[in-house]
Design a protein that fits this description.
This protein is α/β, with parallel strands linked by helices. It contains 27 helices and 13 strands.
């Protein structure tokens, strides 16, 4: 078949509008500014846990981790004697390129996470192990087996790679201007910068070669650079963080700005080669804290990730000037399929951004699983564990970023630890999917193996509480009371459980401890606000949600919590604004539509209140309060028959 138009899907890991917008305002990212001016664009909310292999596989498949099977950075080796980076052979759902293949389209894939070994397609796949150097400069640097499909192109692509030692001092100046005045600088960070530049340039060279010289209908190119630049250099970005020396700040304060400006130039070349007849989809999997909200340097790498990335869609299949509201990572696959003229699967939870498309998407099919032939999908033809040098280089890179333990990559113990970590990540993903009982079952098994782990204990108790078993949650959380020091998350959990048990004094003690802690992560303040809502302490809830939103202005749950707190204070105008902001951030948030309906009705806008209540009921048919409100509004509007339907539904919900 012939697609509606060629589509170029570009992934910028960790790109964030809050960093980008000031650069656009200063004229420093002209390509993205121009693209955005003729596009539909908005935020893109992430999934949890915010780990790149899981997120980018969700983007490519349209499914959550519980369905696609990629559960972290590493997985046990097939023989149980160590670990390897998560591979394409572990993916259980077809990716966009498999779907395009099944429809007779030609696809190229470059650098995408968890695509090693490269799978055969009608086009070309270059895996995420292709660009990693495995030899010193000047020595033979073989292309890792299985990193290019078809393998016949490996020799041609080898010449496109750039070794870090090829990056000259002059090439570093756009990132580190002070080097122009330095005769010699010996700093390991400059070596890391060379590696980041070289690997990004290698991916870009292969992508532009394929786009320019080969036929294609879909091209998916993933650039890890912004995220990895951030992990190494965001700590030096202005304003200066505590613990940063004068020399470090002076030398490296421009790196992140230089990084984004370089990526703008990369985007310019991609757009130029793709041509005006191509749809451009530019996305990121999450954002990145970059100002006073940055965590401590030694913090978990995930704590640097903000909950919203970017989405830009432009081209002949797109209405320019539209804003995308409430987009999620799970929407990307249905949207790309629609741009190609292909249907999404009914089993995909996301939606195509129809408000931005010039043509309606084709009717959905049951699932692409039934349409992708076994030969078109993993497992690939090559065992990803067969090249020791490439495997070690990949694992060392992950260790440098803090995602794996450099001492635990070989042997049965490492394999067992990787298997446990995959199960833990699956549990967190199930919690994010609102499946707490299943998450609790997994966490309980892990907790039996590691009963002294306070983080695991806390997550188990949270899952049990979320599933409604507060007695079991209290029992599971008991060891946290004796752990020194008690983490703010544990204080919040213990306070919540005390409140549910009616012990307001004990709850207050724990909540005060959370409030006193210097916590820069918005989720913790959001949870504290939710607990205050339960206790009907609306002023305290307002302060907690205000801190959450200060740390992350796009935090949908925090914005919705602020709306509910405003309703509790009878400040309906503020509630309306907060609810609208929450919906703009994440459209599929039923309670935000309900709170909007409540605020609109209280301010005399019954027609819009009816619409908001109806949206809530459509998104969450079991939302009893929304049905009651909708029935009342329908009756008031003289639509008695429709009102009766919802009153009957309310009675059924009360019985269940």
């Amino acid at each position: 078949m012939k697609p509606l138009a060629k589509t170029l899907l570009i992934g910028w890991d960790a790109a964030d509008w809050r960093f980008i917008n000031p650069l656009i305002d200063r004229g420093l990212m002209p390509t993205l500014a121009s693209l955005r001016g003729r596009s539909a664009f908005g935020n893109l909310s992430t999934l949890q846990p915010a780990l790149s292999p899981m997120l980018w596989t969700s983007i490519a498949t349209g499914h959550r981790a519980s369905q696609h099977g990629i559960l972290g950075f590493v997985e046990p080796m097939p023989d149980g004697q160590g670990v390897r980076p998560s591979s394409s052979t572990s993916r259980r759902r077809p990716a966009l390129w498999n779907m395009a293949d099944a429809a007779g389209l030609t696809s190229h894939v470059v650098g995408w996470y968890a695509t090693h070994p490269a799978e055969p397609t009608r086009g070309c796949v270059v895996s995420n192990q292709f660009e990693i150097p495995t030899s010193p400069h000047g020595q033979s640097w073989p292309v890792p087996p299985g990193s290019v499909a078809p393998a016949s192109l490996a020799a041609e692509f080898a010449s496109l790679r750039i070794h870090p030692r090829e990056i000259t001092p002059e090439a570093l100046l756009p990132f580190v201007p002070p080097l122009a005045n330095a005769t010699h600088v010996a700093d390991p960070l400059l070596g890391k910068l060379r590696c980041l530049i070289a690997q990004t340039a290698s991916i870009h060279a292969v992508a532009t070669h394929l786009i320019e010289h080969t036929p294609w209908d879909l091209c998916c190119v993933y650039y890890e650079g912004i995220d990895r630049f951030g992990h190494e250099f965001m700590q030096f970005h202005p304003p200066r963080m505590p613990g940063t020396t004068d020399e470090q700040f002076e030398r490296y304060q421009h790196v992140m700005t230089g990084c984004y400006r370089w990526f703008d130039m990369i985007l310019d070349r991609l757009i130029e080669l793709a041509g005006a007849d191509t749809n451009i989809v530019l996305i990121s999997d999450h954002g990145y804290f970059h100002d006073t909200r940055r965590p401590r340097v030694e913090a978990d790498p995930q704590s640097w990730h903000r909950s919203h990335g970017i989405a830009v869609v432009a081209g002949p299949g797109v209405r320019a000037g539209e804003r995308l509201f409430g987009g999620t990572l799970l929407d990307v696959a249905p949207t790309v399929l629609a741009l190609l003229g292909l249907p999404a699967g009914d089993d995909m939870p996301g939606r195509a951004w129809t408000e931005a498309l010039t043509a309606s998407p084709p009717a959905r099919i049951a699932s692409w699983n039934d349409r992708v032939a076994p030969s078109d999908s993993p497992p690939g033809a090559t065992d990803p564990s067969q090249d020791p040098a490439a495997l070690l280089a990949s694992l060392q890179q992950l260790a440098e970023l803090g995602y794996v333990d450099s001492e635990a990559i070989s042997g049965p113990r490492a394999a067992a630890k990787a298997a446990e970590l995959r199960q833990y990540n699956l549990a967190i993903s199930l919690l994010d999917e609102q499946r707490p009982a299943e998450a609790a079952e997994i966490l309980r098994a892990l907790h039996e193996q590691h009963p002294g782990d306070p983080g695991l204990t806390c997550q188990l108790a949270l899952a049990l509480a979320a599933s409604g078993d507060h007695v079991a949650a209290s029992a599971a959380a008991e060891p946290l009371r004796h752990h020194t020091p008690i983490h703010p998350r544990a204080h919040l959990l213990l306070g919540s459980l005390a409140l549910s048990a009616g012990d307001a004094t004990q709850a207050e003690t724990h909540f005060d401890a959370v409030a006193r802690a210097e916590v820069v992560h918005p989720d913790l303040h959001c949870r504290l606000g939710q607990v205050y809502l339960t206790a009907r302490r609306f002023d305290d809830a307002t302060r907690a949600f205000a801190e959450c939103v200060r740390l992350d202005p796009d935090h949908a749950v925090g914005l919705d919590g602020a709306a509910e707190a405003a309703i509790g204070r009878h400040d309906y105008h503020a509630a309306r604004q907060f609810a609208l902001a929450a919906i703009a951030s994440v459209q599929h948030l039923p309670r935000a539509h309900y709170h909007l309906a409540v605020a609109l009705r209280a301010t005399g806008n019954d027609p819009d209140a009816l619409t908001a209540a109806a949206v809530c009921v459509r998104l969450a048919p079991a939302h009893r309060a929304a049905r009651e409100l909708l029935a009342s509004l329908l009756q008031q509007a003289g639509r008695e028959t429709e009102a009766a339907v919802h009153r009957i539904a309310v009675q059924k919900l009360k019985k269940t």
